[in-house]
Design a protein that fits this description.
The complex is a heterodimer of chains A (about 475) and B (about 210).
Chain A: H1 2-19, H2 23-46, E1 51-52, E2 56-57, H3 60-86, H4 91-113, H5 117-135, H6 141-174, H7 182-187, H8 194-212, H9 219-227, H10 230-237, H11 239-255, H12 261-285, H13 289-308, H14 312-343, H15 354-357, H16 359-372, H17 379-393, H18 397-423, H19 440-458, H20 461-471
Antiparallel strand pairs in A: 1-2
Helix pairs in contact in A: 1-2, 1-4, 2-3, 2-4, 3-4, 3-10, 3-11, 3-14, 3-19, 3-20, 4-5, 5-6, 5-11, 6-8, 6-9, 8-11, 9-10, 9-13, 10-14, 12-13, 12-18, 13-14, 13-17, 14-16, 14-17, 14-19, 14-20, 16-18, 16-19, 17-19
Chain B: H1 2-18, H2 22-43, H3 49-77, H4 90-109, H5 118-137, H6 141-161, H7 167-196
Helix pairs in contact in B: 1-2, 1-4, 1-5, 2-3, 2-6, 3-7, 4-5, 5-6, 6-7
Classes of the chains: A mainly alpha (about 475), B mainly alpha (about 210).
Chain lengths: ~475, ~210
């Protein structure tokens, strides 16, 4: 019942601004939808484990991701409003922005809660559509190039996931069932046909890497985050990535109950290492701040994948990591707009001495940088440490050493650029003109970073319990 | 009978590897749509009438009429040159395509499965990998779109193979087809064509690291 109302509300709130192209309509329907989203998340939290409409279950993983979305959606909505005002967007592009924004959030929520392998896939497809409209917001050549690459790569990856589902359905036919819900797959895990499951798992993982940001399909996401408005990039780099993770993790939890478990861990580890290597290589040469943040997201997803490949303890740490990453990364992307307004550029070379122009913002950015590179007091430090401990416990010493070396290089490249932006003044001849930014705009990011630290060091028992339950999906 | 149709489907892939006009590709895609229609008629005997009509309509009306018509319209309106400008000579293309087909046969030999007809598997896997190769080896953006359509056709073949047991998946496959094609072609016709005209991959190099 609630889910039907939620879907109807999403459709109405997305259709209204699309039909009536007025700024007021766009604002009102977005705010109504966000209010509804919060209500829906709250309802789901109080109805843990309940299955509604047959296809949506409020299980631990879904609830965690839904709560992350509910927390991130508030600041991104505020900053979307600020962004559109600053950008002097016309009524038509405001309306399309609002409609796609609502559609994206609704598709994400429903994707998290889907208990059917095909339904997760359907909502992933819907996020491609809505994200493409948002990436194209600026309607210039670069935005078009980014959108085209994103749509094309996502179309291929979505097709890959579908092939994977077809192959897994073949594997399930051997077990004498045709019910493709995760529950039924887990129930028949022992009788699934190994060959088809193997092939299907490869296709599904490769397909979802486009959303999660792992090798081989990560490229689309980088261009998308570079070209999308910063509040949208914040969503793409955090909650959309989580949907890719949910897709991979739920399938992995089925595979982990079969004899293919250790094979699937090798596959995930290999993908994670190639990703980590690629992220390090690019981080050394990229000068564009937004792309740097996007590559940092890829690095964190590689760490998360290493975590889930390291067994039960690793899964706990990986889910904790992805939850905190959601807050920190979205905060950094939201801060990008303030940085951009001071320096009028995306390039690290044109930025410097941020402390002199906007001290409060510089402090927030510094906290964000410390948080994202997982140095204490960052919450990510806790989870990253746990992941490495899990790898150590699993006996992967050489892999661990390699990962730590790559991470050291990557963090050096990342921090070098950001410390320059914050502390080292620009040469006298190209100083930016003074811009006044209200410190209130940076408060939202400060809160997001604070939430990550809070969860890292003093997580409420309820959250830890949820993470523990989600980690227990994997045998 | 389905075997013959699927082998003709494989032959269209080989022809696509050596054809060098954009219009030939469009025609091949239309023919593939018709072939899929025939396969669907022969294969889906256990499906209920409403569902069957819906799938047949998709293969015939959408795949072999609507999509080719839109592609032709795009070629004409944007004055896209006739030549496909592949990166590799046709001879090499043909060899690679043949290797893909042979590889799929070898892969199919490993399978001993009562639920899946091997010919379906060979046709589907060949089409999927041929589509990927086609995308990688052509310069024009519109031929990338066509390569994607070939992948879609391969997926449809695979979905038809399990269609009797899993009608849900066949419907989802149809949905994927329509959704992705409309999304990709929609962007192409509305935007890329206007901005980049005779677009090829060299135009899309602004975003890089």
């Amino acid at each position: 019942m609630v889910i039907t109302i939620y879907i109807l509300a999403a459709i109405v709130c997305a259709a209204l601004p699309f039909v009536i192209r007025r700024k007021g309509v766009a604002a009102v329907s977005t705010f109504c939808f966000v209010a509804f989203q919060l209500f829906f998340s709250g309802w789901a939290l109080f109805n843990k484990g309940v299955t509604v409409a047959g296809f949506f279950t409020a299980d631990a993983l879904g609830l965690l991701m839904l709560s992350c979305l509910a927390i991130v959606v508030l600041p991104t909505t505020i900053h979307s409003g600020l962004y559109l005002r600053e950008d002097r967007a016309d009524a038509s592009s405001c309306s399309i922005y609002a409609a796609s924004y609502v559609l994206l959030i609704a598709a994400l929520s429903l994707g998290y809660l889907s208990n059917h392998i095909a339904l997760t896939w359907v909502f992933t497809e819907v996020t491609t559509l809505s994200a493409a409209m948002l990436i194209y917001h600026h309607r210039n050549r670069q935005a078009l190039e980014g959108t085209w690459k994103y749509v094309f790569v996502c179309a291929i990856s979505v097709t890959f996931v579908f092939i994977g589902i077809l192959l897994i359905s073949l594997s399930l036919l051997h077990a004498g069932s045709s019910d493709l819900s995760y529950e039924s797959l887990a129930l028949h895990a022992a009788a699934l046909d190994g060959f088809w499951l193997k092939l299907g798992f490869i296709f599904i993982v490769v397909g979802y890497t486009a959303k999660m940001g792992l090798f081989p399909m990560f490229t689309a996401g980088i261009d998308a985050k570079d070209n999308a408005p910063a509040p949208i990039a914040a969503l793409l780099a955090s909650v959309l990535v989580n949907l890719g993770f949910v897709g991979i993790y739920r399938t992995y939890s089925v595979v982990s109950a079969t004899p293919l478990c250790s094979w699937s861990r090798v596959l995930l580890t290999v993908l994670a290492f190639i990703t980590l290597f690629v992220a390090t290589a690019y981080m050394l040469r990229v000068r564009n701040i937004k792309r740097m943040l996007a590559y940092s997201g890829i690095e964190h997803m590689a760490i998360v994948t290493l975590g889930i490949a390291a067994g039960r303890v690793g899964c706990y740490a990986a889910i904790l990591h992805i939850v905190m990453h959601t807050f920190v990364k979205s905060g950094l992307f939201l801060h990008f707009n303030q940085l951009y307004r001071v320096f009028k550029s995306k390039m690290a070379d044109a930025m410097g001495g941020y402390f002199n122009y906007y001290p409060f913002g510089a402090m927030v950015l510094l906290l964000g940088v410390v948080s994202i590179v997982a140095v204490p007091p960052s919450g990510l430090f806790v989870s990253e440490f746990m992941i490495f401990k899990a790898m150590f416990g699993a006996g992967h010493f050489a892999l661990l050493a390699l990962a730590l070396i790559l991470l050291t290089v990557l963090i050096w490249a990342f921090v070098r650029n950001f410390l320059k932006i914050i502390f080292i003044p620009l040469p006298q001849d190209n100083l930016p003109s003074a811009v006044r930014i209200s410190p209130w705009e940076s408060v939202t990011q400060l809160l997001l970073f604070a939430v990550a630290i809070y969860i890292g060091y003093a997580a409420p028992p309820a959250v830890m319990e949820l993470i523990g339950e989600a980690a227990a999906f994997v045998r | 009978m389905t075997d013959i149709v699927l082998i003709v489907f494989l032959m269209t892939l080989l022809y696509m590897a050596i054809a060098n006009r954009m219009r030939s590709y469009v025609k091949i895609l239309a023919v593939q749509g018709v072939l899929l229609f025939v396969v669907a008629v022969l294969q889906l005997k256990e499906m209920n009438a409403f569902n069957l009509v819906w799938i047949l309509l998709e293969t015939l009306a959408f795949k072999s009429v609507a999509v080719p018509a839109v592609l032709l319209h795009t070629i004409n309106r944007n004055h896209i040159t006739r030549e496909a400008e592949p990166f590799l000579p046709h001879f090499v293309s043909l060899i690679i395509t043949a290797l893909i087909v042979v590889g799929s046969f070898l892969l199919a030999e490993m399978i001993n499965d009562s639920f899946l007809d091997k010919t379906f598997f060979v046709a589907a896997v060949s089409a999927i990998f041929f589509g990927l190769y086609f995308i990688a080896s052509r310069r024009k953006l519109l031929s990338h779109v066509m390569g994607y359509m070939v992948i879609e056709n391969g997926v449809t073949v695979l979905a038809l193979a399990v269609g009797n047991e899993m009608p849900l998946l066949i419907n989802l496959g149809v949905m994927l087809d329509i959704f992705a094609s409309v999304l990709i072609l929609g962007i192409f016709i509305n935007k890329i064509g206007d901005v980049f005209r005779d677009a090829d991959v060299e135009d899309l190099t602004e975003l890089k690291d």
